[in-house]
């Protein structure tokens, strides 16, 4: 298959709910293959709604979305994109971890041999192979998160969307997730309030506010811009404030 110059293209995207118009307003965004894009902004700025539109779960009011050069048709399954929801309990539905990771592959008609190979590979990549026979509802929050990721990457999507992936994780689980994402080859779009997490994982950051894209820059450049961050209700991450203070003292 020919290489596409853009993994995701969003053009003039507008969307509103019946009781909340203008959730997204004329959003334009391009994600290149291999990008690790972090999307930041306050609650209600439109991040999750944007993700549901990118995944074809919601239908735009105006505008269109292309995935790997092909239009995203609402309601049409596209294995090229996978979404890891903020709450892993929304994704984990089977009696065992193995069955959960295999679920999507079974529904796409893969052979038992293909399923076994892909599930084993996804569990190994996420470090959850020892959990294969355990019920998902018996796992810790961090274990559930990694199993949910395994279920997505078993499908081998070309773009993975993460909605608040570090939410409610303890320090050890958060560090494990960071190490995994730093090594993963996928094109990623990550929404997070954890700005230190964004600094470590992403190579590009977009700031959203009131349904519009305000700024697009490398994470350290955007997140260290005190005036910009404060104007949109955000704080410069502690690590960048510490560096700035240290440099000023020299």
Describe this protein's structure.
The protein has 250 residues and is α/β, with parallel strands linked by helices. It has two domains: 8-80 and 158-219, Rossmann fold, CATH 3.40.50.300; 91-156, no CATH class. It is 36% helix and 24% strand. The protein is built from nine helices and ten strands. The chain has helices spanning 47-54, 97-107, 112-125, 141-153, 171-183, 195-201, 219-223, 226-231, 238-249; strands at 8-17, 20-31, 36-40, 62-67, 70-71, 81-84, 159-163, 187-191, 204-209, 212-217. A six-stranded mixed beta sheet has the order 6-7-8-3-9-10, with helices on both faces. A four-stranded antiparallel beta sheet has the order 2-1-4-5, covered by helices on one side. Residues 245-250 have low confidence and may be disordered.
């Amino acid at each position: 298959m020919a290489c596409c110059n853009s993994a995701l293209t969003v053009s003039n995207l507008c969307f509103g709910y019946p009781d909340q118009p203008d959730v997204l307003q004329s959003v334009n965004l391009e994600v290149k293959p291999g990008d690790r894009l972090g999307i930041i902004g306050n609650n209600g700025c439109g991040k999750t709604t944007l993700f549901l539109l990118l995944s074809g779960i919601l239908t735009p009011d105006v505008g269109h979305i292309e995935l790997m050069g092909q239009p995203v048709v609402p309601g049409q399954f596209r294995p090229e994109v996978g979404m890891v929801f903020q709450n892993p309990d929304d994704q984990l539905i089977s009696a065992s971890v193995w069955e959960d990771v295999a679920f999507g592959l079974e529904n796409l008609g893969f052979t038992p041999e293909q399923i076994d190979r892909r599930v084993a590979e996804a569990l190994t990549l996420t470090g959850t192979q020892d959990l294969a026979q355990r019920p998902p509802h018996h796992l810790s929050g961090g274990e559930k998160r990694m199993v949910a990721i395994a279920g997505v990457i078993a499908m081998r999507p070309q773009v993975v969307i993460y909605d608040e992936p570090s939410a409610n994780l303890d320090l050890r689980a958060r560090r494990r997730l960071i190490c995994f994402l730093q090594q993963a080859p996928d094109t990623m779009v990550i929404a997070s309030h954890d700005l230190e997490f964004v600094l470590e994982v992403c190579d590009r950051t977009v700031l959203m506010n009131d349904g519009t894209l305000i700024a697009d820059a490398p994470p350290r450049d955007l997140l260290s811009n005190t005036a910009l961050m404060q104007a949109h209700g955000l704080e410069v991450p502690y690590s960048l404030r510490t560096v700035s203070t240290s440099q000023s003292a020299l």
